[in-house]
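Fill-in record for Flavodoxin family protein.
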Amino acid sequence: MRVLWIFAHPERHSLNGTLLDTGLRTLDTLGHEHRVSDLYAMGWKAVVDGADFPAADTGDSGRLRVGDAQEQAYRGAELSPDIRAEQEKIAWADVLVFQFPLWWFGPPAILKGWFDRVLVQGFAFGLKDADGTTLRYGAGGLTGKRALIVTSVGARESSFGPRGIHGPIDEVLFPLLHGTFWYTGMAPLAPFTVYGADRTTPEGALDTAEALSRRLRTLESEAPLAYRHEQGGDYDEDLVLRPEAAPGRSGVAAHRTDDDPERLDRTDQLPLHSAQLSLRHLPV
């Protein structure tokens, strides 16, 4: 199996750095191939601008239409070299692992910029089948690949629970799990979430690294999150769930078909409870 690991953390000497090292060693032990995109180390440019597609045709208006320019440059192999390199890694990979600290309920800007610049129209989305139907939500340019989030948060696990002040972690990560991964056809796996990460001890970091190592052993076998396919018959022509689909449910949970839509946490994850930790040897 071939794994592309996208790492978005500014400090390699951190808990996240430890998890990255552990993850890569585990993949080696399992006989998997891997490549790493360490975005901060690469000096990744986080903003979309005209330099991404310098040969784009702006027409008579001179206006840059980003989606059209991206697709034109992609199809003409005229995207900037850094974008093309990342797309080649994606095409090579069977599984994409996205590792980042959760900042302001989302990934760091550098990773958001990776999504914006790399998953361009014509490559990851905007494709159509022979009948002219747009392929998305369970179909698209990245169909057949799996995606796993490895993320750390400073808050305790209970505050991300069903009644926690931050909201359930599956809802916080829904824009990535559903709106990015599933939209482009990637099968999203339940995220690996480390709670209380900025208060962990070296012993706690070791426990978490071991939990991640165990989790990676399931990359090929675990069932993805049970999101509904857009073309599966559950949505009407306005892309709204039909009355018979998920009756009595609304919001994020309604777009999953499993019996327990609000629970994404896995039993093999080892949360770090902040009330029991006091040392701060490792930044999150």
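KEY FINDING: Residues 260-284 have pLDDT under 50 and may be disordered.
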